[in-house]
Amino acid sequence: MQTEIIPEFLRTPEGQEADAILRACVHCGFCTATCPTYQLLGDELDGPRGRIYQIKQVLEGRTPTRTTQIHLDRCLTCRSCETTCPSGVRYTRLVDIGRGLVERRVERPLGEKLLRRALVKLVPYPSRFGTLMRLGKLAKSLLPMPLKAKVPTPRPAGAWPAPAGRRRVLVLAGCVQSVATPATNAAAARVLSRLGIDLIGAPAAGCCGAAAYHLNAQAEGLAAMRRNINAWWPQVQAGAEAILINASGCGAMVKEYGELLRQDASYADKAAQVAALARDPVELLTELDLEPLGRPGRGRKVAFHCPCTLQHGQGLDNLVEPILTRLGFVPTPIPEAHLCCGSAGTYSLTQPTLSRQLRDRKVVALESGGPDIIATANIGCQLQLEAATHTPVVHWLELLDED
Questions:
Q1: d(C-alpha 249, C-alpha 340), whole Å
Q2: 255-267: average pLDDT
Q3: Distance between CA atoms of 397 and 283, rounded to whole angstroms?
Q4: What is the pLDDT of residues 206-259, one digit of tens each?
Q5: Which residues pair with 331 in a beta bridge?
Q6: Residue-level pLDDT at 140
Q7: CA atoms within 13 Å, Cβ hemisphere of 43
């Protein structure tokens, strides 16, 4: 694609990066076939190709409008288009840059500004989000149905095994996951303990930074990344072999720390090392002998929802199902497995109508094989799906933790 980016942008690192991404795009349109919002709305401007063109116009000097902002907001950043693209266009990075430019030039309605600011100030902080969750549970019977469905069913986390001086792997506690589904990391600790690995927490680490970064509060997102690096660094220097991240959305973000902090002289090298150590649990488990786990599946049918951040963001699709099969589960076929469930971080709150449509479509696909249970790999997807089905929804690691 030919570009004529104005000097004001082209002189900046982000402008140069955007120019390189744009030049890789050949406007073939393959991406529209797998874009969830294009499938729902049928509008070229609500597909990757149309959004790329809108960002290109802004970079070339056209004044963005509220309409431009709306079309960029509707993008889930699910990255399905990146999996489809034959030219390797780094669409998600371009959208991050474009959204930042538009945010600085277009005034949002007051209600949107307040909602987005509240999300930035609440979601990344477990103590604040935990207080909100406790209030939601107390008032659940009084809440309107859309909000009531977002209050998760509490499940006990169970015991966390004490370190036994073996192989050491760090773990990200996370923000929403640590409050809403603490059983996920506890199950991971028990599973890895049975496989000879100590899972070590870092209390000072918190949100991966994605919540703020993708809401255009990029400075706050980068600050969260630096805080995590500081929290992990002593253990990294002491020889921790990996950083386990059990929420695939967080994993996709941590794996980009090196790129996002490459201009920060104080953190660039550390960020690159942390990104290289980041692992999704499926990456660890595919390398281990799982015999000590037995066969907890006992023939139960499982619909595994592979989150966008796992299959498109990290390129780790079709890896969990073989593990489940080895452990006695029977994975069911999932139609349209590449499509987003509509959670997409805070998308279910900022774009509730589109999110519900995608969620309901995904639930139909997951339930089509008659599963006994639905499993996923991301806290946002777990809460999103749980709100729309009577089939139990768990993180897939919880299945491995069963006797």
A1: 12
A2: 94
A3: 13
A4: 899 998 998 988 899 999 999 999 999 999 998 899 999 999 999 999 999 999
A5: 302
A6: 65
A7: 11
Q: Where are the beta strands (DSSP E) in 78-227?
A: 167-171, 197-201
Q: How many C-beta neighbours within 10 Å does residue 291 have?
A: 9
Alpha-carbon distance of 48 to 33, in angstroms, equals 10
User: How many residues would you count in the chain?
Assistant: 403
Is residue 261 within 8 Å of 234, Cβ to Cβ? Answer: no
Q: Which domains does the chain have, with CATH numbers?
A: 7-103 (1.10.1060.10), 110-148 (no CATH), 167-284 (3.40.50), 294-400 (3.40.50.1860)
Reduced 3-state DSSP string for 31-57 = HHHHCHHHHHHCCHHHCHHHHHHHHHH
The two tokens of residue 198 are 């100590």
Distance in angstroms (rounded) separating the CA atoms of residues 206 and 175: 6
Of 188, 187, 316, 191, give the one whose Cα is nearest residue 251. 316
- Which residue type, as a one-letter code, is found at position 235? Q
Average pLDDT over residues 153-171: 84
For residue 336, report the phi and psi dihedrals to the nearest 5 degrees: 50, 45
The DSSP-derived string for 99-138 is: HHHHHTTSPPPHHHHHHHHHHHHHTT-HHHHHHHHHHHHH
Residue 122 one-letter amino acid:
L
Calpha distance 378→307 (Å, rounded): 7
Sheet holding 393-395, edge to edge: 330-331, 301-304, 373-376, 393-395
Q: Residue 41: name the closest of 82, 76, 74, 81 by CA.
A: 74
Residue 34, CB half-sphere, CA atoms under 13 Å: how many? Answer: 18
Per-residue confidence (pLDDT) for residue 150, from 0 to 100: 67
- The torsion of the CA quartet 195, 245, 131, 108, rounded to 10 degrees, works out to -170
CA distance 249 to 376: 12
Q: Global pTM? A: 0.90
108-148 pLDDT per residue, tens? 999 999 999 999 998 878 778 777 777 767 666 666 666 66
- DSSP character at residue 151: S
Q: Which of 96-100, 176-180, 325-329 has the lowest mean pLDDT?
A: 176-180
Task: Report strand pairing: 243-244 vs 278-279.
Answer: parallel
Question: Which residues neighbour 251 within 8 Å (Cβ) at sequence distance 6 or greater?
Answer: 245, 278, 279, 280, 309, 310, 313, 314
CA atoms within 13 A on the CB side of 357: 11
